Amino acid sequence: MLLHKFVVSAIVAGSILFFNTNSSVYSEPFDPYTEEIPNTDLVFGMTPIAAGEFIMGSSSEEEGRKVDEGPQRKVAVDAFWMGTHEMTWDIFELFLNKNYEASVSQKALSPEVDGLTRPTTPYLDMTFGMGKEDKPAIGMTQYGAIQFCKWLYTKTGKFYRLPTEAEWEYAARAGASTAYFFGEDQTALADYAWFAENSEETTHKIGEKKPNPWGLYDIYGNVMEWTNDAYVPQYPEMTDVDENPQQTSEELYPRVIRGGSYVSEALDLRSSRRFASNPAWKQIDPQIPKSRWWFPEAPFLGLRVVRPLVRPTEEEIMAYYDQAPIDDY
Amino acid sequence: MDLKNKNPRRDFLKTSALVTGGMMLSPFSIPGAYASGSDEIKIALIGCGGRGTGAAFQAFGTDQNIKLVAMADAFRDRLDDSYKALSSKIGTDKVVVTEDKKFVGFDAYKDAIAEADVVLLATPPGFRPIHFEEAIRQGKHVFMEKPVATDANGIRRVIAAAEQAKANRLNVVVGLQRRYQDNYIETIKRIEDGAIGDIVGGHVYWNGGGVWTRARTPEQTEMEYQMRNWYYFNWLCGDHITEQHVHNIDIANWIKGGYPVKAEGTGGRMVRTGLDTGEIFDHHTVRFTYADGTVIDSECRHFPGAFNKVDESFTGTKGRAYMNAGNVGKLTALDGSSLYDHDGKGNINPYQQEHNKLFAAIVKGEYLYEDATRSAMSTMTSILGRNATYSGKEISWDEAFNSKIDLMPEKFTWDAMPKVLPDDNGIYPHAIPGQTKVV
């Protein structure tokens, strides 16, 4: 009996995130900013990441390299802001529970926010006792992470989405071609990351470690971070620059997550290291169909949002948010 | 000092008047379950929601030759969704539920049970005693979900039917899956072997954010509304101290090898203030006292935004124990040194293990599982806790167990009225500690 399909379907040339718009008028400067969740005292920081090119993947000499980190190729990405931190429970929980959001908010919820699709309340405690305040939200599916972005969009009017795999690696490297953004020396990791050696098996408050050169905190460790991409075991062979690449799929599994977590070993925190979502993370979900919102066995998985500098059209935005969920048995 | 020897509760089942007040079952049919000659096991699913459908998947996930031959649910749409999921993923050679074997309504369970060797009972828990009695009366092996009842009357019925199941060697597995989970089994085995001495205190928690609600629709009768929102009504759910926290309370009973003699506690409704929140509390804190004087603190709550934890910890005369459903099991000496740290890697999914064990026993003709009485006693413990918080008084086990208060409706039809009804503003009455009578 095959309950889960592990096969990634043929990769469709994706185009939902990068748009051939002619828009060149930016209404605001490309600076760091603080996003406020309207009518609450909750905020999160956004850091500008300039457009650029980099070599994606790792060379065959890199210690700990896996075969799926290649072949290396030149990738160009457009400019975007990225969440300075991993998204916290403080904010994610407003999205989880409309009544809670309404009780925390200083004004009534708008009809658009009121009418959003929200996660089913998890039967289990999805913090696994690790705490909420200033700690990363964990255990959500990619679908749940994208619907959270839609909630943010409805609240703020800004197009937030998950990073592509290329954007994530570009931002994590911060210009470095070494295994880590600070070089090759693993002993420096403890300055920048919560991982197996120093985490004491729990998530930590965001921003307690030093940021990477582009100002991103906890980009390695603490929790793994969702990307938009389907996982493919090999990057395409390319001679030209691969512009804004992304992989889409008709299958629910596997999808790419990045960055290692509080339970990862040092080599799993490398900028090029890739991880794939796994249906076994819902093994102990006793319901069928299994929750489209929660991975009860992935307490190491969280999210960080990005916002492209060039805003797509409303139709394109809604097409991204309203991708049909895939049933999971 | 050997506290264990002071604890007479291990013999509780033999010494207390468990079946007093239990209904007399009609004369038994001969157990026809799993007739020899074929390795095929016919199952029926009673209660086709997400959990029931999950249980059916787990039955198919065993090594045995399973056929689903009948389904029953109060609601046709629930049955249809479940059938669609099962038939499309398992295949119609194994999911052989023809239109005339899809039974809908309050009495549907009887006909579905008749079709099968083994029945899966996964309706809202208020119906469990009725369905369990019928399954045993018809001589079937049973997997049933926790909790097994919502009031003492239901508990007594389950215990009486469990006696009959035992007499007829019918295997009964109950979905208190921690009992089938390696970290609990291995850790508690070591505790029972004396690794941390005698257990003298403990804390069990289910602190989470709450569960789903389903909006009332204009065409619904009151009965249908309550059935669709079963979590919020005591006759159906038992309150969250029973529906969820029974898992952790059951671990306390397992560790103590018995059941509490009394309970007192505090509970109420802080955040559950809307029209869609029925009559249940959103928090309970209970002190359960066992026969040897050990006090186990129990806490459960549904507070969005608050700190959550779901786990069990105990103090022994020589050390401490910590367990949770994430395959953690740790024993620590009083000086902090580790005595045992369970390796959860590769541990089998406990929901699957329940079914693997049940169906393997059935196929071999073995009688191995009699979870019903024990599970009824742990469900009763949670009801005792609810009695304590609802009343605001100290309640003894015997008072709670012998209570004649029956939460179930007088009759089961769509236009019948449950016993708890909303006021003119649509608000349901709920218990007021100090005023509410519970036994």
Summarize the structure.
The complex is a heterodimer of chains A (329) and B (439). Chain A has 329 residues and is of the alpha+beta class. Chain A contains seven helices and 13 strands.
Fold blueprint:
The complex is a heterodimer of chains A (329) and B (439).
Chain A: E1 12-13, E2 33-36, E3 43-49, E4 52-56, E5 73-77, E6 80-83, H1 89-96, H2 98-104, H3 111-114, H4 142-156, H5 165-173, H6 189-192, E7 224-230, E8 242-243, E9 247-248, E10 255-258, E11 274-276, E12 301-302, E13 306-308, H7 314-321
Parallel strand pairs in A: 5-8, 7-12
Antiparallel strand pairs in A: 1-9, 2-3, 3-6, 4-5, 6-13, 7-10, 10-11
Chain B: H1 3-6, H2 12-15, E1 40-46, H3 50-60, E2 65-73, H4 76-90, E3 102-104, H5 108-114, E4 118-121, H6 128-137, E5 141-144, H7 152-167, E6 172-174, H8 182-192, E7 199-208, H9 222-228, H10 240-243, H11 246-256, E8 262-268, E9 283-289, E10 295-302, E11 309-316, E12 319-324, E13 328-333, E14 338-341, H12 350-363, H13 371-391, E15 395-396, H14 397-401
Parallel strand pairs in B: 1-2, 1-4, 2-3, 4-5, 5-6, 7-10
Antiparallel strand pairs in B: 7-11, 8-9, 8-15, 9-10, 11-12, 12-13, 13-14
Helix pairs in contact in B: 3-4, 6-7, 7-13, 11-13
